[in-house]
């Protein structure tokens, strides 16, 4: 559904300096930030340079605190359930490594799980924890019935990635949450590609833990991310690293752990980037996540249709619901070479290697794909530009 008017689209593009110089279809890597995000970061850094780092933080403490509320508003959480991290991997890893597993316990995951998360899963397997992969069906949909069958008294965690790095499919995280809650199994969601593209409500999802990044569809700066940990499960996770932000009444005899999700984060991080994250969330909330999601789906559907009509091009996305990530390959041509040629001609796409989502890629026999990830500020004419290039370029037979 094309629900954003021409006037609105022009405004969003005028608000984004990068839109004037290139076609940016790498939003699943790092989106182009609105100018106001960059201005917020630069202005804060200038103030630090002329006023002092700690002094500037103290002066802007209300704004910095407000970012926690903005994140909470974005995902339907309470402010006390939010922690800020430098990236989603640190957020996910902190939560996962904070869980306690015993030999014989079982974890259920999906075929779309991201490589960094799989490293964590591989580590616990060495300790006698069984990891069960529930694969998608032939149509690319996650089978809830298979999930139900996989759960037993030893199941301690369901950990899934909502939207994969190297595919356009989507897992039904709300329905998975209902199954997890029915069986009283802890439920963890990687929403790295979700935040800023797809409306998130942790209560509707029914998740206990959710991690996300700022740099992707959120349009925030690199070096930002966040973690949601449901208040009722915070005591089930042990902080991996701690400093005085997480603890008070510290002595050699012990300390008192703070009673919110910030026990999982460290004090020292960029306040400028934190404010940039907050400004990006403000911008997205003003546009409206429902409207963003509808526009992204419309553009991605258009891109898949146009790409599928080009001889020699294969679109690989399957599933009943697809997102803004469009993956394809060109017959007989290495996908990295296709990616490089497009980028050289001002069309930013990315390469998805087999290592990013190894279970999914191996299952489908894919060594690499071209990934074009669209956002609401992209134009139909930009899709035509990419497709025309693929039609005209000699590597397409």
| Secondary structural class | alpha/beta
Provide the gyration radius in Å: 22 Å
Query: What is the topology, as strand order, of the major beta sheet?
Result: 2-8-7-6-5-3-4
- Determine the strand fraction and express it as a percent band: 15-25%
Q: Main beta sheet: strand number and arrangement?
A: 7 strands, mixed
Compute the number of strand runs.
15
Briefly note the CATH topology name of the largest domain. Aspartate Aminotransferase, domain 2
How much helix, percentage-wise, in residues?
A: 25-40%
**CATH hierarchy class name of the largest domain:** Alpha Beta
Give the overall form. globular
Low-confidence stretches: none
Tell me the count of domains.
2
Element-level helix/strand string: HEHHHEHEHEHEHEHEEEEHHEEHEEHEH
The CATH superfamily of the largest domain is identified as Type I PLP-dependent aspartate aminotransferase-like (Major domain)
- What does the average pLDDT come to? 95
Number of DSSP helical runs:
14
User: Which second-level CATH architecture of the largest domain applies?
Assistant: 3-Layer(aba) Sandwich
Distance between the termini: 33 Å
């Amino acid at each position: 559904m094309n629900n954003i008017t021409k006037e609105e689209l022009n405004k969003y593009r005028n608000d984004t300096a990068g839109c004037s110089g290139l076609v940016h279809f790498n939003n699943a890597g790092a989106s182009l930030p609105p100018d106001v995000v960059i201005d917020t970061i630069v202005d804060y850094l200038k103030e630090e340079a002329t006023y002092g780092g700690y002094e500037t933080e103290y002066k802007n403490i209300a704004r910095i605190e407000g970012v926690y509320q903005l994140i909470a508003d974005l995902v339907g959480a309470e402010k006390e359930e939010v922690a800020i991290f430098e990236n989603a991997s640190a957020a996910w890893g902190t939560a996962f490594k904070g869980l306690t597993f015993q030999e014989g316990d079982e974890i259920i995951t999906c075929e779309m799980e991201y490589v960094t998360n799989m490293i964590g899963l591989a580590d616990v397997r060495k300790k006698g924890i069984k990891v069960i992969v529930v694969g998608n069906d032939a149509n690319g949909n996650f089978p809830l019935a298979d999930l139900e069958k996989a759960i037993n008294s030893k199941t301690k965690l369901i950990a899934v990635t909502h939207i994969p790095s190297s595919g356009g499919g989507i897992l039904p995280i709300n329905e998975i949450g209902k199954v997890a809650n029915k069986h009283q199994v802890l439920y963890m969601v990687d929403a790295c590609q979700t935040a800023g593209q797809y409306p998130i409500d942790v209560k509707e999802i029914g998740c206990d833990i959710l991690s996300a990044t700022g740099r992707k569809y959120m349009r925030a700066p690199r070096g930002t991310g966040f973690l949601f940990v449901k208040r009722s499960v915070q005591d089930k996770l042990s902080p991996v690293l701690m400093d005085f932000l997480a603890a008070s009444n510290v002595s050699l005899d012990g300390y008192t752990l703070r009673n919110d999700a910030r026990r999982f984060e460290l004090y020292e991080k960029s306040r400028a980037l934190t404010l940039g994250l907050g400004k990006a969330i403000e911008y997205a909330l003003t546009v409206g996540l429902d409207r963003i999601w509808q526009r992204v789906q419309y553009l991605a559907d258009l891109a898949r249709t146009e790409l599928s009509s080009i001889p020699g091009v294969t679109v690989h996305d399957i599933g009943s619901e697809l997102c803004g990530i469009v993956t394809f390959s060109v017959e007989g041509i290495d996908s990295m070479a296709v990616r490089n040629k497009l980028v050289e001609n001002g069309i930013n796409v990315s390469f998805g290697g087999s290592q990013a989502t190894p279970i999914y890629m191996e299952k489908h026999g894919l060594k690499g794909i071209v990934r074009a990830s669209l956002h609401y500020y992209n134009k139909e004419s930009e899709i035509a530009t990419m497709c025309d290039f693929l039609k005209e370029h000699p590597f397409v037979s």
